[in-house]
C-alpha cells in the first residue's frame, strides 16, 4: 500500500512539474505576444509619422512647383499644327489677341510658348495644350480672367479655353472630382472648384467645401452621389480615419 502511494506521489510530482513547465512556457508566450503587439503599435505609429512627413514634403515640393508656374497659363483646344511655320511666340500672341479681341499694340510680354511635352497625337481631333509663360504675373492674370469672363473664345473656327498651368500632381487631384461633378451636374446641383483642389457645392442655400474626392463622396452619398476612388484617395481616407489630417496640396495664389 505504501509503495503504491509512493508511486502515486511521484506521478503527481511529475504532473505538477509538467504543469509548472507549461505555465512557464505560457508566460513566455504571453510576453512574446505582448512584445509583438507593442512593436506593432510602435511600427504603426512610426509608419504614420513617416507617411505624414512624406506627405508634408510632397505638399511643400508641389507648392514650390506650382509657385514656379504662377506666370504660366495653358490654352486648350487649338488645333494641332495650327501654328504652321510661324514662330510660336508670335503665333501665341496673335491667338490671344484675336480670341480676346485685344488691341494690336497690347504688349503681352510672352517669355516662352510651346505645345505640352506629350507625344504628338495621331488622331487629328486631339490636340496638345499650349503652355505660355508671361514675363509678368499681372499680365497672365489679366489674360486669364478676361478669358474666363468671355462667353466663348474662338480661334480659327475652334473653341478654346484658358486655365492655370497646374502641376501634374495637382491636375490629378482635381481630376479625382470628375465623376462627382458629372453626377452633380446631372442633378442640377450647383458647384464650383477653387484652389488648390477644393470642391464647393451649394446645398440647401448654403455652400459646403470638400478638400478631397473621398470626403465629397462620403458627405454627398445621401444624394446618391458615388465615386470610384483612387488608391491614393483611399489611403488618405484611412489616414483620416486614424485621426490624421493630410496637408493640403498644390497651387496657392499668394
Topology:
Layout: H1 2-68, E1 72-76, H2 88-100, E2 110-115, E3 130-134, H3 137-149, E4 153-155, E5 158-164, H4 168-175, H5 178-186, E6 191-194, E7 198-203, E8 206-210, H6 213-219, H7 231-241
Antiparallel strand pairs: 1-3, 1-5, 2-3, 4-5, 6-7, 7-8
Coiled coil: 5-46
Keywords: Coiled coil
Protein name: L1 transposable element RRM domain-containing protein
Characterization of the model:
- The protein is built from 7 helices and 8 strands.
- A hairpin with a 2-residue loop joins β7 and β8 (206-210).
- It is α+β, with helices and mostly antiparallel strands.
Summarize the structure.
The protein is of the alpha+beta class.
CATH architecture of one domain: 2-Layer Sandwich
Number of helices: 7
User: What's the CATH H-level homologous superfamily of one domain?
Assistant: L1 transposable element, RRM domain
Rg computed from alpha carbons, rounded to a whole number of angstroms:
32 Å
Give a quick account of the main beta sheet: strands, pairing sense, barrel closure: 5 strands, antiparallel
SSE succession: HEHEEHEEHHEEEHH
Low-confidence stretches: 248-254
CATH structural fold name of one domain: Alpha-Beta Plaits
Helix content: 40-55%
Q: What spatial form do the alpha-carbon principal axes imply?
A: elongated
The average pLDDT score comes to: 87
Beta strand %: 15-25%
Assign the structural class, choosing from mainly alpha, mainly beta, alpha/beta, alpha+beta, or little secondary structure: alpha+beta
Distance between the termini: 99 Å
Strand order of the largest sheet: 2-3-1-5-4
Number of strands: 8
